[in-house]
């Protein structure tokens, strides 16, 4: 087994070999949300891709230690807390909470740690790193009292993004009054306090202020995972300046290679443009839940396209996700009915799903193979499948579902629903189609869906629009 990933740093597909001498442990850092509002599903495309990556590595026997940071202090969080008239901590707490709920709904495995930038020990680590960079001549305090990274002193600056330094322009994340900087591309490590920051400041050797966004990730990654890590992920918009800056800071301090594999996912698009807060073309997970879609349907829609290919968000895509999961559900039901007990007498020796993912997470090939096998085994079921073989297919699926996390949660219909469903069976036996349809509607209005399959009537939980989002009807 050889796993290969595209490394943004080299722009090449490389064989994956972790730092761990035993070759089992993998340290992974993933840039998390800025908690000033609900994350949109573009953000979640990045997090779902990272989840697929982690789950696949685990399926291949690695132990993954993953850290995801929460950016809870920056211009946007400060602005948000001021306009909400709430202390910063209180303002961001609600969005942290919402983020964790969304992570669960999308079946993303929780990270081992969610460090927040404002925690004391991380602020201390940030200050220590900045002091070190200054002592090495890699940073300086400018007249505006802020501290900047001196990019001309870091020869590798621009390597990740394949950028020529002379092309650099200031970016939105950097304060605009930067006439004090030596180079337009020098980025802030420490931002001196100003009136707009209100109550938000920390003491530092350079006076009151707050950390810049990039140093937050370098300090949190190094504190929790060490100076060298295996994989660092984010969306492509993170490559520059954020990840470029992380390399300059971390490697500037340690002199070691900070990250072995940089992996970035392409954007989720809407009508050809990046889904983003600033363009206003975004949907939150909650928006989709309130339209009646489930977490796993959104998960499917976000995962199904290769992570390095742009993915267009469409309602047809959401319907396709629903249908694809419906096919899996029907197939599993048939297998379960054909395998009434737990005795596994056979094993399906088929690794192609995982082999496809070994090759830079080729999810399209992996899903293609899954549906091919579903078709094949459905044909076998048509002609009669032995319980042992059906059980073996279920075992095969279990391994795959560890990676995909697509399986429907079992939810027993309440007595009222089973009674309606039983009446519907009777109506159909009496060929009373009108009554059968009325009963289907009645069941649907109570949040359940009836499907007629070869094995009989099947009930799935299908919350009515608004019900899932907790919006009262
Ligand atoms: P932010 O909260 O803007 O720092 O973004 C959090 C994560 O979501 C980062 O890894 C971004 O690269 C990623 N991201 C933001 N917008 C999109 C999008 N439209 N498609 C995919 N990833 C995105
Ligand atoms: Zn980051």
List the helices and strands and how they pair.
Elements: E1 4-7, E2 12-15, E3 25-30, H1 41-59, E4 63-68, H2 75-83, H3 88-105, H4 120-135, E5 139-141, E6 147-149, E7 188-192, E8 209-211, H5 213-225, E9 229-235, H6 239-254, E10 259-265, E11 268-270, E12 273-274, H7 285-290, H8 295-303, E13 311-312, H9 315-338, H10 352-358, H11 363-382, H12 387-404, H13 415-429, H14 433-445, E14 448-453, E15 456-461
Parallel strand pairs: 3-4, 3-9, 9-10, 11-13
Antiparallel strand pairs: 1-2, 5-6, 6-7, 7-8, 11-12, 14-15
Helix pairs in contact: 1-12, 2-3, 4-5, 4-6, 5-6, 8-9, 9-11, 9-12, 10-11, 13-14
Bound molecules: adenosine monophosphate (AMP) and zinc ion.
Describe the structure.
- By secondary structure, this protein is of the alpha/beta class.
- The protein has three domains: 4-265, Rossmann fold (3-Layer(aba) Sandwich); 273-404, Isoleucyl-tRNA Synthetase, Domain 1 (Orthogonal Bundle), CATH 1.10.730; 415-468, no CATH class.
- The protein contains 14 helices and 15 strands.
- It has helices spanning 41-59, 75-83, 88-105, 120-135, 213-225, 239-254, 285-290, 295-303, 315-338, 352-358, 363-382, 387-404, 415-429, 433-445, and strands at residues 4-7, 12-15, 25-30, 63-68, 139-141, 147-149, 188-192, 209-211, 229-235, 259-265, 268-270, 273-274, 311-312, 448-453, 456-461.
- A four-stranded parallel beta sheet has the order 4-3-9-10, with helices on both faces. A four-stranded antiparallel beta sheet has the order 5-6-7-8. A three-stranded mixed beta sheet has the order 12-11-13, covered by helices on one side.
- β1 (4-7) and β2 form a beta hairpin.
- The longest helix has 24 residues, at 315-338.
- The N and C termini lie far apart (52 Å).
- Mean pLDDT is 93; it is low at 468-473.
- Adenosine monophosphate binds at residues 31, 33-34, 42-43, 45-46, 234-235, 237-238, 265, 267-268, 274-276.
